[in-house]
Specification:
Shape: globular
Order of helices and strands: HHEEEEEHEEEHHHEEEEE
Distance between the termini: 45 Å
Largest sheet: 7 strands, antiparallel
Structural class: alpha+beta
Low-confidence stretches: none
Helix content: 10-25%
Number of strands: 13
Number of helices: 6
Radius of gyration: 19 Å
Mean pLDDT: 96
Length: 279
C-alpha cells in the first residue's frame, strides 16, 4: 500500500555519498606537458575475442586504440609487484561516477586505496550523455563471464572476457588457472557505451561510438601490470559472449615521457589509515 506521504518521501533531495572537494587532484597541467614528448617503448596487439598483457612502469603513459573497427575492451590493472593491489571499480565509481573520462582516476582496492592510473586523454570525451542515458567507458559492468553465460543460456563458453583475462594472467605470471582466476576483477569497460534503463533500472549496452584511431590514454601512477580483453561482443550493439558479432583487435601502446618532464611528480603512497579498526 502506498503511504500517504509517498510524494514527500520521494521528494527528499539526494546527497552525494562521497563529496570529492578534498580528494587529491591530479596535476593535469604537468601530465599535459609531459604528453608532448612521448616515445613508444612497447606496443601490444590484443587479438579479437582474446586478451593480452602489458607492463607500464610508474611515470609512463599507456594508450588503448581502436585500430580496425569499433571494439570494446575489458581492462584489469594490478600493481606489477604485488597482485593483491588491484583496480577497485566500485570505489572508483563511487568517487567519479558510473563512467570515466579525462581527469578521472582508477583507484586500487583496500587497504591500498590510491590512484593507479589517471586518464590523460579521451577521444570520446565529446560523447557525453545520449538520449537513452548512455555514456562511454563504464565502471558499472563486471565483465562477460562463463558462469553467467551458463546460468542464462547453458553450455561452456570460453572466449568471454573473464576467461580471456584469466588465461592471459596465468600465462603472463606462470600461475595455475585457478590461482589466476582469483586475481581477475571487475573492469573498466573501455569504449563501451552503457547506462541504466529509466523504467526498470536495468543495465544496458549499445553500439560503441569508437572508430579506428579513437583512443583513451592513461598515466601510470604506480608500476602497473595490465591485461586487456577484446570483448567477444565486438562493439556490444547486440550481445556479448558471442561468436557471431564482428570483432576487431585493439592496440596498447606504452609511452615514455622525456627525461625531467615529470619534475616534482612522485608515485602516490598507499592509504594512510592505520588499519587498527578501532581495536
Amino acid at each position: 500500500m502506498t503511504p500517504d506521504d509517498a510524494a514527500a518521501r520521494r521528494a527528499v533531495k539526494p546527497v552525494i555519498c562521497y563529496p570529492t572537494q578534498t580528494l587529491p587532484q591530479p596535476d593535469m597541467a604537468l601530465y599535459t606537458a609531459a604528453r608532448q614528448g612521448l616515445t613508444t617503448v612497447d606496443q601490444v596487439i590484443v587479438p579479437p575475442r582474446d586478451a593480452a598483457s602489458f607492463h607500464v612502469p610508474a611515470g609512463h603513459f599507456f594508450r588503448i586504440t581502436s585500430i580496425e573497427g569499433p571494439q570494446v575492451g575489458d581492462l584489469n590493472l594490478w600493481n606489477f609487484n604485488d597482485l593483491s593491489e588491484r583496480f577497485y571499480s566500485g570505489k572508483t565509481r563511487a568517487l567519479h561516477g558510473t563512467h570515466l573520462t579525462t581527469g578521472h582516476r582508477m583507484w586500487s582496492c583496500l587497504p591500498y586505496l590510491r590512484p593507479m592510473a589517471t586518464i590523460t586523454h579521451d577521444t570520446l570525451g565529446w560523447y557525453g550523455t545520449d538520449e537513452h542515458g548512455g555514456r562511454v567507458h563504464d565502471v558499472i559492468g563486471t565483465r562477460c563471464d562463463p558462469y553467467t553465460h551458463n546460468l542464462l543460456a547453458g553450455g561452456q563458453y570460453h572466449q568471454c572476457c573473464h576467461s580471456n583475462l584469466t588465461r592471459e594472467l596465468a600465462g603472463a605470471r606462470g600461475m595455475a588457472l585457478e590461482v589466476a582466476e582469483g586475481h581477475v576483477h571487475d573492469v573498466l569497460n573501455v569504449f563501451m557505451c552503457t547506462g541504466f534503463t529509466r523504467d526498470t533500472g536495468q543495465y544496458f549496452m549499445k553500439a560503441s561510438p569508437v572508430r579506428p584511431g579513437g583512443h583513451i590514454e592513461f598515466f601510470a601512477e604506480i608500476n602497473l601490470l595490465g591485461v586487456l580483453s577484446a570483448c567477444p561482443g565486438g562493439d556490444c550493439s547486440s550481445e556479448h559472449s558471442s561468436d557471431a558479432a564482428p570483432c576487431y583487435p585493439l592496440e596498447v601502446t606504452v609511452l615514455r615521457p622525456e627525461e625531467n618532464a615529470l619534475s616534482g611528480w612522485s608515485a602516490p603512497q598507499i592509504n594512510g589509515y592505520d588499519r587498527t579498526h578501532g581495536v
